[in-house]
Amino acid sequence: VLQLTLAVIKPDAVAHPLMSEALHQIILENKFVIVRNKELAWRRQDSEKFYAEHSGRFFYQRLVEFMSSGPMRAYILAKEDGIRHWRDLMGPTKVFRARYTSPTSLRAQFGLTDTRNTTHGSDSPESARREICFFFPDFHVEEWMDKD
Ligand code: CMP
Fold first, then answer.
1. Is there a domain that residue 104 lies in?
2. Which of 3, 56, 111, 129 to pair with 80, CA 20 to 30 A apart?
3. How many domains does one find in the chain?
4. CB distance 117 to ligand 1 below 6 Å
5. Does 27 reside within a domain?
6. CATH number of the structural domain spanning residue 19
């Protein structure tokens, strides 16, 4: 089925002059349709709200700080089985696991640490819906997605 997913190029990658352009090309080469795409920056409160489910984890503070440290680029992507495809392209969260198990993945190639790991992608249709609304409040997600 055609799926929407929310993909984010995180501040570590956007900070590098060539990286966000390279990642944009990789998105196109992998036949994702770019439905929406914008650059934005979070205040600390936005970061805390988005990652509320991780509050209490040992990496929460550094995650929240990192995600509000500079501009990022958010995409609504559409593709057949797009959630899984984008996650496969990203590779595992942890950068050394990514380098070991999926050396050609984005996080393996470009990730700096487990926190500064280059990209984000929704992990289910429910989180895609939530995350698309969070990043693109004007986007009418119900008109694009069936009730799962
Ligand atoms: P993401 O998949 O976007 O959403 C949760 C984020 O928390 C994850 O990317 C990483 O940036 C961060 N994260 C997850 N696990 C760890 C970890 N073990 N150590 C540091 N940061 C982590």
1. no
2. 111
3. 1
4. yes
5. yes
6. 3.30.70.141
Instruction: Tell me if 65 is assigned to some domain.
Output: yes
ipTM surpassing 0.85, yes or no?
A: yes
pLDDT in tens, the chain (148 residues): 789 999 999 999 999 989 999 999 999 999 999 999 999 999 999 999 999 999 999 999 999 999 999 999 999 999 999 999 999 999 999 999 999 999 999 999 999 999 999 999 999 999 999 999 999 999 999 888 765 5
Ligand 1 close to Cβ of residue 63 (< 6 A): yes
The verdict on the CB of residue 59 being under 6 Å from ligand 1 is: yes
Domain containing residue 30: 2-80+119-139
Tokens linked to 81 = 């089985």
Domain assignment present for residue 44? The answer is yes
From the CB of residue 134, how many other CB atoms can be counted at a distance below 10 Å?
14
Mutate to test the pocket of ligand 1, among 12, 54, 55, 63 (most ligand atoms within 8 A of CB): 63
